[in-house]
Amino acid sequence: MNAILTFLKNFEDPDLKPIRSAKIARQKFIEKTPEIPLITIEYKGATVIPRPEHNVSRQQVSENALKVVYKLKKEGFDAYLVGGCVRDLLLGREPKDFDVVTNALPEQLARLFSNCRIIGKRFRLAHIIYGRDIIEVATFRKSGSENPSAAQRSTKEGRILQDNLYGTIDDDVWRRDFTINALYYNIRDFSIVDYVGGMADHKAGLIRLIGDAGERFREDPVRMIRAVRFAVKLGFKLHHDCEQAIHLNAHLLASIPAARLHDEVVKLFLTGYGVQTFEMLRHYGLFEVLFPAVEKSLSVEEGDFPRMMVINALQDCDNRVAENKLSPPYFLFAALLYEPMLQRAKDKIGKGILESDAYFLAASEILTQQVGHIALPRHVTLAIREIWNQQAKFDFRVGAKPSKLLAHPRFRAAYDFLVLRAQVGAIPMELAEWWATYQSVNETERRKMTQPQQQPKSAQPKKKRVYRKKAKPATVLNSEGV
Ligand code: ATP
Ligand code: MG
């Protein structure tokens, strides 16, 4: 009876509807929260740029981001847009996402927004979810150097592990990475609050760390690849101190958990500026930390072949982004790691290992090594393997094999990879062209094309092939699932 009464009571409470475990967890989380007095905001030492003196307009802000900041304002909290969106709007670009910062605590946000999910351990954040659009809302935080507490933990090298010490906007600004990322757009009067000379650096096109560059990179080495990403994306220059500090601290990137690097690397290479980013990461010694096997293969003197393969793959990804098409990470990783895999397989064949086993083992080893640096989901490593495996099958142009290959769900990616190899001269262009024609013609023409007499001599598969038919090696997956 009691259970029924509780159920009915809960049912009347709009905050508890529908009764699902996530909702209940959220409710429990809210109940534990103490009420805190609202903080009055003063800007210690900041310059306030009034609306008429800057070009950021509310019209350019997404509807959902506006909903969030207005609701916070209505409830008596302070709310600012901050980070990349302000930076990009000042440049007249469309922001990738909108980040909001406020004096409301995550628990208060959970209470205010029924579509709120609290995420993150290192940083606790609120995601306000509008279908596929997510507005990230952070609570002002302070850097913990003067206030070490349980809410903030770091390694002995100074890398921050947990940072949940809340503060005011005056505190919050100092823990942001670059001056151009620390401009706050105030929804109350549409002014921009600048504590760190961000507007001047923005005008000068400079990426400058807030505070001591070396210290800030040691706190979080991911900032080094963010510096490169923003420099390329915005066409800005790295400040001298920032450049020097990257040269000195690049190796620290190796300490970042592989899972965190996955997202960062996707942003580095798959958001439209891959080629330039690759060149700049190599220049600063960051690429070799992220992709040691690739860097090693690039340094092998074999003309410009391995490098061109990577550059062309990145260019492909950049072109796709420019055409508003998706660029799947597996294609890029397959291209990056192909040469290291081939080199490793060659070594194994040299040691007398059977060709097919050598390629299988080389693929496993290279992928396992790489996921130790940058985590890749299992479906991605499987796709990479499939693309690699199918390359040898393109040599077979007689009989039923071509139609079987064409029907493979991964055919399109494997074919694009074949074209990539042809472009850098790794295989004859004629082979890629044959497959282009084969795809474009009707069934009767396809049958004609795969008659033995139709095949040019060069199209006959060589006697000894890498993946010739043999007992399939057992699909043994290692602990990383590759
Ligand atoms: P974009 O979203 O265009 O990639 P962004 O600058 O908005 O760029 P986000 O990752 O969305 O990048 O982060 C939002 C803001 O949070 C940044 O602008 C910066 O102020 C702060 N920030 C993010 N990552 C870090 C970091 N590693 N160290 C310090 N501040 C950070
Ligand atoms: Mg952002």
Describe, in short, the structure shown:
By secondary structure, this protein is of the alpha+beta class. It has helices at 2-12, 21-31, 63-74, 84-90, 106-112, 169-172, 198-204, 213-219, 222-234, 240-249, 258-269, 274-283, 287-290, 292-298, 305-322, 329-350, 355-373, 378-393, 401-406, 411-423, 429-440, 443-449; strands at 47-49, 79-82, 99-102, 116-119, 125-130, 133-139, 152-154, 160-163, 183-186, 192-194, 206-207, 237-238.
Question: How would you characterize the overall build of this protein?
Answer:
With 482 residues, the chain is an alpha+beta fold. It has two domains: 191 residues, 2-Layer Sandwich (Beta Polymerase, domain 2); 202 residues, Orthogonal Bundle (cca-adding enzyme, domain 2). The chain contains 22 helices and twelve strands. Strands 1-10-9-2-3-6-5-4 form an eight-stranded mixed sheet. Helix 9 runs parallel beside helix 11, helix 14 crosses helix 16 and helix 18 crosses helix 20. It is elongated and about 85 Å long. The structure holds adenosine-5'-triphosphate and magnesium ion. Magnesium ion binds next to loops.
